[in-house]
């Protein structure tokens, strides 16, 4: 599974931080992007939504420009399916909880953490891509060819959805978006139960 | 209030308009004892524009059929409609809506809304109320028998919770109980007011009880009556000596006070007296009218012996400063609080940090009366929750003013202590000199005295020597004590700087650890690896740099543990530069602050290094706080030599210093940054240290106008 | 001979294509030489008035009615306006009602049965359709075809469920791409409901005389 890492951090000193090195070792240098400008970073995400990107986000951006929380919110507007790891040197407690709750931050990592502490979290993010059903559906849609704006899914209550519509719903995790993974889960359960029955017969 | 009139007039009834739960809630919960009850009733009279309230205690010890308490006021009284629609109704909003009493008095209402009437039942169970307005010709009388309500309450409480159908019919409501009313003769043109005649008294009133009531009531009225436009007096009548017909006067406190300050204001000149401690004396000065308006302020300080004497005589506690308006206590101070600890310190006297150090006074050492008037101090508004004043500019300004006056007293006390110390010391020295003198005299006498006296003279001489020894030892001890005290002070100051510094240092360390940790981790887990040689090199030099910086910081910290007085040659430029570039750099980076140093790097100052570092350490700390909300902060230090003086300017482009505070910021414990951990010691210390160097420091126009602040420091220069 | 009405809203904006597809399936089944001649009611004439006219003519004779359109709990609609609801359920006395509309099993079915309809086959949920997958229409039509083959309605219901399962399994096994569609088919399957008595085509047959 191809994974990229985007590090949004305005202090250039961190460009050569050991964490960045460790990430490069793991994912290849080409797949690790260090972007100090938040606007550029958001653009990058926008144009690469079809890739699996893990984001490291420094919370303490300068006052006046977008601060870390706002950047997280902007990312979430694009998709709920991007794991954003908050990276910070300040006292965590307050930050931790509000961002977790409001904008679904993936995890929280202190700037003084060891690689032994950080890399498992990165692994979790990779697992997220692999195992999370919504991510799977997202990938499935992404790799499809053809016109993704043509309506293909119709419901009896008059709604119609194109693949891109479904993609958006899943990324935004709307009720409709969430229903897809639910339907898949129910299918899996159904298959298991019927298989069991067949085996019993 | 003759009982005959009852028989003549037709019987009419009024009913109370509320239910039992409301009654219990309001009455019982809010007024807990009979003194409070009296308090509330008197407040009601005040709110009714009374000039005089008379409380008469009749035959109350022991209780008998003639026992009565009569509370009579000459206020505006009530119309029948007022009686029916207000007195008989719960939670009438008249006091909620009108925070002032009727014209022309316009007194700020002190009584709690609508509970006065329940106060009565704490005194006795039968009430005969009579009331009359000036423009009515007859008095109205109302009879309330609280025992009926008590019975009903019992009845209601004993009913099962689940009401059966029939039960409803049995139960009476409060609203069913009838209170008889009637009118007097149509012959009284001039009288007005309200009289509460309470019978069936609940508990006896001893002499002590009535004395206590007097004391409590005394708190209602300010001792400084001069200002009252419409006076308010309370009289007590009883059978006891000294309280037969007693006007309740606030006690005269002045006789016991150790230090008294009485500040008045002048309406014509629009000036306010303030107290300033200057040149060893506590003086009164005139200053302009302050934002809170003209006030009179009476402040009395009591030292330990004074407190003891006061308590002996008056048997009340010294309990801080209270605010009165037009002669009556204001609501935040009006609640009778039995436990002094519970009373809120809304002036913030005890909140000042590090109380206990350096002659700090707290509210148990002070009695104060702030006299406001509606006319002059309209900006000071009591909060609707009655617990505080509205937190506006005028209130804050008043608080600052009061604290400042207390501070002047503190300065005076400190100075007194100093004087005593000096005197003691010089007295000791004089004593030793005197002893030498006597010794010499004795020697002379010995030369001309007969032999028989020699032994005696010898004794005297050796006694004198011993005495001299004692005195000298005392001098030594005393000097040592002084030293210790100075050391403690010095250490204390150091500690405070340490506190602010420690925070910064931990921050620095944390960052260092952060980097070093991962670098070391990476190295140890991947070494050896040819491909990563470049990275390993980078790691090793990074670790080295980090530790170097850390070492500088540790060195800096260690200095604080030593209180040395050594002087040395110091390169000012390097000293400040070190602070900017090494010690404070991480903090600056974090807060996006740039530093600038414009100073000849050959300037050498001969002084105590730590003291100098302290000065700049504090100035920088101060600036960082001021720059908290600024995007691009600048801290700039520049200096020139002029006429054998080093003139330094230390500036930042932060919040700035209000022109009102230009002088006060150097005062100890003056802080506007308490939330950021500001102890109010920094700039005081800076000024102290600079003045110890024979220099000066002041606030000048900011280099970064209109923002920011600039300190101008002048130091004598010897090289 | 049987009285057979097949209603399709083939012009509908969202389900139109699906409905059209099913319509064509039926047209193929009832080719010109087939003994049964169904009456087709298309979008243009799918309205309460027309339904009344058509059904009134039958008087009390039995008939089979199939409807492929949108629906709600208590009605079938075309362009949001009802064409079968409380006001005309009584027309369906003596019928077998077969529908591929959403939710009508919840309330409309009971109303129909209360008013003399023998049997209802329809859905209690939202019906799903994914363009390009014949499985949806095949399963949707299967029941009715089985009834025409002579299977009784209860049996047809069971066979429909089997058919759904077949399609689901096939989609999943053959083609990993089909899992989404399989999940939607499963939803449809679980929404399928049979209400009323089990009757068979025999009960609707009559001779030409």
TrEMBL record, chain B:
Domain Histidine kinase as annotated: residue spans: 504-719
Listed EC numbers: 2.7.13.3
SMART domains listed in its UniProt record: HATPase_c
Enzymatic reactions: ATP + protein L-histidine = ADP + protein N-phospho-L-histidine
InterPro entries for this protein: HATPase_C_sf, HATPase_dom, His_kinase_dom, Sig_transdc_His_kin-like_C
Top EC group: transferase
Gene3D superfamilies the record matches: Histidine kinase-like ATPase, C-terminal domain
Molecular function in Gene Ontology: protein histidine kinase activity
CDD domains, A to Z: HATPase
Protein name: histidine kinase
Organism expressing this protein natively: Sphingobacterium puteale
Upper classification of the organism: Bacteria, Pseudomonadati, Bacteroidota, Sphingobacteriia, Sphingobacteriales
Automatic annotation (TrEMBL), chain C:
Protein name per Swiss-Prot or TrEMBL: CHAT domain-containing protein
Species the sequence originates in: Sphingobacterium puteale
């Amino acid at each position: 599974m191809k994974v990229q890492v985007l590090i949004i951090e305005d202090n250039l000193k961190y460009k050569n931080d050991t964490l960045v090195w460790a990430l490069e070792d793991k994912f290849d240098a080409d797949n690790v992007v260090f972007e100090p400008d938040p606007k550029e970073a958001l653009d990058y995400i926008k144009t690469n939504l079809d890739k699996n990107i893990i984001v490291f986000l420094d919370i303490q951006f300068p006052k006046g420009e977008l601060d870390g929380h706002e950047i997280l919110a902007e990312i979430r507007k694009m998709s709920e399916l991007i794991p954003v790891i908050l990276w910070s040197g300040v006292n965590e407690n307050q930050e931790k909880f509000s961002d977790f709750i409001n904008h679904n931050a993936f995890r929280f990592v202190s700037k003084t953490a060891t690689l032994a502490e950080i890399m498992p979290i990165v692994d979790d993010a990779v697992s997220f891509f692999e195992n999370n059903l919504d991510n799977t559906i997202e990938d499935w849609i992404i790799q499809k060819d053809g016109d993704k704006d043509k309506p293909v899914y119709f419901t009896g209550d008059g709604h119609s959805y194109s693949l891109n519509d479904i993609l958006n719903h899943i990324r935004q995790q709307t009720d409709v978006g969430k229903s897809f993974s639910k339907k898949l889960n129910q299918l899996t359960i159904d298959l298991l139960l019927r298989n069991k029955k067949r085996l019993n017969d | 209030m003759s009982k005959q009139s009852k028989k003549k007039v037709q019987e009419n009834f009024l009913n109370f308009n509320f239910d039992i739960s409301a009654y219990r809630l309001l009455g019982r919960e809010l007024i807990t004892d009979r003194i409070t009850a009296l308090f509330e009733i008197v407040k009601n009279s005040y709110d009714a524009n009374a000039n005089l309230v008379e409380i008469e205690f009749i035959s109350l010890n022991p209780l008998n059929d003639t026992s009565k308490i009569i509370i009579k006021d000459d206020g505006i009284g009530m119309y029948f409609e007022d009686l029916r629609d207000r007195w008989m109704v719960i939670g009438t909003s008249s006091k909620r809506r009108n925070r002032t009493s009727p014209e022309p008095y316009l007194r700020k209402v002190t009584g709690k809304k609508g509970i006065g009437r329940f106060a009565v039942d704490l005194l006795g169970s039968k009430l005969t109320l009579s009331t009359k307005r000036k423009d009515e010709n007859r008095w109205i009388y109302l009879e309330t028998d609280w025992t009926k309500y008590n019975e009903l309450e019992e009845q209601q409480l004993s009913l099962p919770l689940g009401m059966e159908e029939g039960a409803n019919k049995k139960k009476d409501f409060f609203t069913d109980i009838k209170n008889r009313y009637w009118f007097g003769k149509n012959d009284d043109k001039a009288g007005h007011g309200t009289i509460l005649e309470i019978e069936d008294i609940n508990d006896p009133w001893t002499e002590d009880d009535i004395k206590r009531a007097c004391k409590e009531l005394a708190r209602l009225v300010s001792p400084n009556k001069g200002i009252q436009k419409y006076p308010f007096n309370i009289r007590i009548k009883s059978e006891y000596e000294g309280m037969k017909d007693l006007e309740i006067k606030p006690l005269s406190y002045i006789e016991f006070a150790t230090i008294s300050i009485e500040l008045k204001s002048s309406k014509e000149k629009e000036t306010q007296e303030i107290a300033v401690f200057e040149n060893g004396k506590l003086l009164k000065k005139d200053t302009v009218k302050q934002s809170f308006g003209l006030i009179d302020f009476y402040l009395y300080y009591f030292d330990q012996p004074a407190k003891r004497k006061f308590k002996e005589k008056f048997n009340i506690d010294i309990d801080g400063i209270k605010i009165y308006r037009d002669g009556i206590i204001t609501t935040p101070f009006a609640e009778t609080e039995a436990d002094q600890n519970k009373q809120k310190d809304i002036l913030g006297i005890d909140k000042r940090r590090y109380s206990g150090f350096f002659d700090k006074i707290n509210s148990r050492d002070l009695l104060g009366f702030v006299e406001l008037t509606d006319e002059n101090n309209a900006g000071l508004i009591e909060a609707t929750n009655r617990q505080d004043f509205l937190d506006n500019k005028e209130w804050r300004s008043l608080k600052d003013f009061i604290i400042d006056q207390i501070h002047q007293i503190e300065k005076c006390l400190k100075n007194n202590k100093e004087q005593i110390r000096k005197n003691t010391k010089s007295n000791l020295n004089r004593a030793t000199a005197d002893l030498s003198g006597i010794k010499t005299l004795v020697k002379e006498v010995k030369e001309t005295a007969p032999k028989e006296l020699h032994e005696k003279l010898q004794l005297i001489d050796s006694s004198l020597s011993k005495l001299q020894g004692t005195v000298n030892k005392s001098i030594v001890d005393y000097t040592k004590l002084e030293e210790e005290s100075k050391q403690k002070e010095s250490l204390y100051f150091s500690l405070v700087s340490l506190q602010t510094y420690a925070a910064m240092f931990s921050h620095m360390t944390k960052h260092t650890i952060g980097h070093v940790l991962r670098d070391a981790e990476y190295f140890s887990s991947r070494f050896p690896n040819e491909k990563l040689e470049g990275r390993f090199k980078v790691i090793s030099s990074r670790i080295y740099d980090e530790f170097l910086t850390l070492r500088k910081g540790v060195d800096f910290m260690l200095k604080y543990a030593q209180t040395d007085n050594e002087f040395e040659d110091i390169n000012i430029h390097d000293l400040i530069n070190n602070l900017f570039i090494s010690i404070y750099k991480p903090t600056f980076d974090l807060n996006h602050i740039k530093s600038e140093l414009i100073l000849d790097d050959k300037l050498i100052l001969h002084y105590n290094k730590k003291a100098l570092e302290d000065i700049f350490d504090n100035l920088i700390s101060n600036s960082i706080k001021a720059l908290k909300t600024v995007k691009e902060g600048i801290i700039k230090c520049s200096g020139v030599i002029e006429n054998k003086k080093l003139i330094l300017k230390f500036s930042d482009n932060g919040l700035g210093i209000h022109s009102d505070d230009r002088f006060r910021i150097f005062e100890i414990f003056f802080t506007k940054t308490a939330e950021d951990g500001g102890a109010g010691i920094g700039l005081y210390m800076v000024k102290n240290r600079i003045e110890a160097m024979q220099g000066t420091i002041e606030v000048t126009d900011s280099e970064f106008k209109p923002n920011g602040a600039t300190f101008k420091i002048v130091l004598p220069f010897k090289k | 001979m049987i009285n057979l009405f097949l209603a399709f809203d083939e012009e509908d904006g969202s389900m139109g294509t699906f409905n059209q597809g099913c319509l064509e399936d039926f047209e193929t089944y009832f080719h010109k030489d087939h003994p049964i001649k169904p009456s087709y009611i298309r979008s243009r004439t799918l309205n309460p008035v027309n339904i009344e006219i058509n059904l009134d003519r039958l008087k009390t004779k039995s008939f089979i009615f199939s409807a492929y359109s949108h629906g709600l709990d208590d009605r079938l609609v075309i362009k949001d306006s009802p064409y079968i609801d409380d006001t005309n359920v009584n027309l369906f006395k003596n019928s077998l009602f077969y529908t591929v509309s959403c939710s009508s099993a919840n309330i409309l079915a009971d109303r129909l049965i209360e008013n003399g309809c023998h049997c209802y086959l329809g859905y209690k949920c939202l019906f799903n359709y994914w363009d390009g997958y014949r499985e949806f229409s095949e399963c949707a039509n299967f029941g009715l075809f089985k009834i025409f083959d002579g299977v009784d309605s209860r049996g047809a219901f069971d066979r429909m469920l089997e058919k759904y399962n077949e399609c689901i399994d096939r989609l999943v096994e053959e083609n990993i791409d089909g899992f989404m569609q399989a999940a939607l088919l499963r939803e449809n399957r679980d929404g399928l409901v049979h209400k009323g008595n089990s009757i068979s085509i025999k009960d609707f047959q009559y001779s030409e005389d």
